[in-house]
Design goal:
The protein has about 240 residues and is of the alpha+beta class. The chain is built from four helices and 17 strands. Strand 6 (about 55-60) and strand 7 (about 65) form a beta hairpin.
Length: about 240
């Protein structure tokens, strides 16, 4: 449940990463929003230097604020790569304030940049979930989807061109076969120049009435048969004994 404060311009509420701090009133640029506080840890003391958690805010090489206490509401402020606030560190006073760097509207989540060291140690391994990084990932996903669609359409166009080319080739083959049928008979797919007679190719040698017909046997033997083409079709071939 959200924690609402009537006299302070923020509340704790649900965020994309869990809990976050949200503006309840307009906050002008430059306004100190909240103080980040907790016990001061001295790095020269081994027991304090050994303390480790996600809410440590380093002031100097020696002093660090342990912001893990429940009273430190500022610990709910999440990281953002393009924040609307920043940390105002005052090492000498050993204090840290969160200050607005742009106008913040009611309902906006308050956030600031945690810094490179924290980002590498805690955020990079799981992926930053700030709005800017989410928009960047969303854009990359959209570009990846568009690239997959482009490649798919390209493959489809290539397949279509291949199919059209194959269809044209088959159409040319059918046209060639029809032309061959128109010019002569087809025997086993081969067009002949004349009529076939029991293994002989008959070729008219010319003349009137009883013309001479040259009979060519498959074996290569040649002889002239004195008859017309009509009688030649009815006659039996004379075979020579070799």
């Amino acid at each position: 449940m959200s924690t609402i404060s009537s006299n302070k311009p923020y509340r704790v509420g649900r965020s994309r990463t869990g809990l976050g701090l949200f503006a309840t009133k307009p906050i002008k640029k430059g306004t100190k929003i909240i103080r980040y506080f907790g016990p001061l840890l001295d790095s020269k003391k081994k027991d304090e230097d050994a303390i480790e958690n996600k809410y440590l805010f380093e002031l100097t090489n020696r002093w660090t604020i342990d912001g893990s206490i429940r009273e430190n509401v500022a610990r709910y402020i999440n990281h953002a790569c393009r924040p609307n606030a920043e940390s105002d560190v005052r090492p000498r006073k050993r204090k840290v304030f969160i200050r607005a760097i742009k106008d913040i509207e009611p309902g906006d989540e308050i956030n600031y940049d945690y810094g490179t060291d924290y980002f590498k140690a805690y955020l990079k391994p799981i992926g930053c979930k700030c709005d800017a990084c989410e928009r960047k990932r969303k854009k990359k996903r959209a570009e990846a989807r568009a690239e997959r669609v482009r490649l798919k359409e390209r493959a489809e166009r290539k397949a279509q061109r291949k199919a059209e080319k194959l269809a044209e080739e088959r159409a040319r083959q059918r046209k060639a076969k029809k032309a061959a049928k128109a010019n002569g008979k087809l025997v086993n797919g081969t067009a002949l120049n004349g009529s076939h007679l029991n293994g002989h190719s008959l070729i008219n040698t010319g003349g009137q009435g009883g013309c001479l017909v040259e009979a060519r046997h498959r074996s290569g033997a040649e002889r002239l048969i004195p008859t017309s083409l009509e009688n030649a079709l009815a006659a039996r071939p004379v075979r020579r004994a070799w």
